[in-house]
Please model this.
Amino acid sequence: MLIASDRVSAALRSTILGDACAALRGLRQGGSMPLTSKLFRDDAALQNCLVSDAGHVTPGARGDHVSKIQAALVTLGAGVIAPDEIEGSLYGQTTARTVLAFKGPPRNILGPGQTTPDNIVGKKTIAALDNELVAFENRPPPAVGSIFVSLTHEGSPHDHSTCPRDAGGRLVDHIATPINPGLGRKVNIGGEGETQYQGFEDFVTDPGVVGGPPRPLTDTIPRDTVTDIALRSAPITPRGESEIRRIAASGARLTIATNAFTLPKMEQIVQRLGGTVIESISLPDTSVPDGLGYQILVVVLPTKF
Model:
């Protein structure tokens, strides 16, 4: 069964929104309890935003704190933010528009004397974002399965004794990796052995872009020969985009596991590649430092003639 494309289900949205409203009702004069979501809690600028009018985040701002607000808005399904604003950590027009959408109905986050929301992230807005992020971090795993992607750290049943180990001696993690690949050549760009049991080979498209063990460049792969391409927490550079287009066989499957920071850029790349998204998954993973887990796209690339 395929997972619905909505990143946050209607039922989960209702639960999150109810929790957010409760948090807003509990706000005290001069602020609230400190921000507690994994994404926000260690950011001094956002903690200051919660308690100080001077700390409000406004259009034109730049910085890591803006990037975290953007990631929260995208993850919670508030709207679409332009990739250039995300890459530049810029509170630009599309970020402001998404903030306004988040603060509008049904939340209706209003400041003193306001009758309509504004596009500023102030005390109530950052508190609502934080509370919804906490609910998002604690959401249950998907209730249905996927025929394309591993939703567990163990992956598909296999002999784990054949899997490589990391520098700490731990077995590689198979969460958010492809399952049931095709019969052709399979390539994991930036991989570190986590998909070897499925027959994938690890490559990189650019020298020095991602860390990890030495891997050959995709330059050695013949054109139009790869039926399955995977990337997990690896960037797609301009050269990488060209290489994916070059090595992909007709109708190849592309599996991307990323985060909310880079999801809009990945979606833009998929569009340029002419791919069709057949599955979109928001996958919880408490081991991910920002608490947002993985945003997964399973894509069918165009037929080549």
In short: The chain has a mean pLDDT of 87. The longest strand covers residues 248-258. The helical segments are 10-25, 44-51, 64-75, 83-87, 93-103, 123-137, 238-247, 263-273.
